[in-house]
Fold:
Amino acid sequence: MVTMTNPISLEVDLAPGAKRSLILPNPVMVASGTFGYGIEYTKVFDIQRLGGIVTKTTTLAPRRGNPPVRIAETPAGMLNSIGLQNIGITALVRDLAPVYATWKTPVVASIMGFTVGEYAEVASRLEGIEGFAGVELNLSCPNTERGGVEFGQDSEAAAEAVARVSRATTLPIIAKLTPNIADPRIVARAVVEAGADALCVGNTLQAMAMDLERRRPVIGATFAGLSGPALKPVALRQVYVVAGAVDVPVIGCGGIATARDALEFILAGASAVQIGTATFTNPLAPIEAIDGIEAYCREHEICRIGELVGAGRAPADRKPRPETVPLK
Ligand SMILES: Cc1cc2nc3c(=O)[nH]c(=O)nc-3n(C[C@H](O)[C@H](O)[C@H](O)COP(=O)(O)O)c2cc1C
Structure:
């Protein structure tokens, strides 16, 4: 029987059995690109309470990003087309890693490359650097060696990027999948087989908006990614489907704003969640989600958050059923 005084363990291991573990103090992370490099928020709240911080996606060279307009509101979310503006891996390692090394909260470096070689090169720059607890591969990047098809939409290229990164670093590897694909299980299985320790499911949905007065797309780069509450039911289904197809931890991401949202993803099979767009309107959303998850556990006499992972799955879906979908 759990009483008000029993400690509740919210701890999550995102890389059980990996060369190096990735233990989060609680399952609530902040999503790449929506929390900058984390420094800015140290003045807003105690970021050391977060389960984990994922940096802005960082590439080999710094990038200026897309021309304006880069963001637009939608009825239940937002569109963004930042174009991967970032400081580049050299500055990340030189200027920010020493700060991260003093933080209690695990910091995961989000990385990207336009070729598999570039993914590996960026990952190798993180090797042996104090301050990083893991690496997240943003697979929503056009592969210049395969006609610009996104890595996340090409199971072979995604697997090759993960395999090359796993040879370049001993850090735990999270592969961040794209939702812009018919069946996410195929890429999910391919990247796990290639060495991903955990999966993040997923990223923004491809979208756009039209300006009636100017009679042209609202967004400078024409297309954008949809994030926020509109994404939640789609992302929830994808987490449910992927969690049933792999046996590594899954991180849910897409439209999560509250503890209730986070718990839905956990019941669907996510071991942790990432909160993105919600922090733009409420920077304290991740902290409120942590407190709310703990309150739920207390109220429902849950001692360990792991007890809830997948607890909402239909009985037939509780075990991975790899035979249902072939790898290719
Ligand atoms: C302004 C903005 C910038 C983003 N930049 C990145 C990025 O650099 N790398 C990445 O993997 N995802 C990026 N994302 C996607 C988020 O990390 C997240 O996967 C997505 O927004 C869905 O979660 P949400 O609905 O909670 O925001 C960005 C999202 C937004 C809104």
User: Anything to note?
Assistant: Residues 321-328 have pLDDT under 50 and may be disordered.
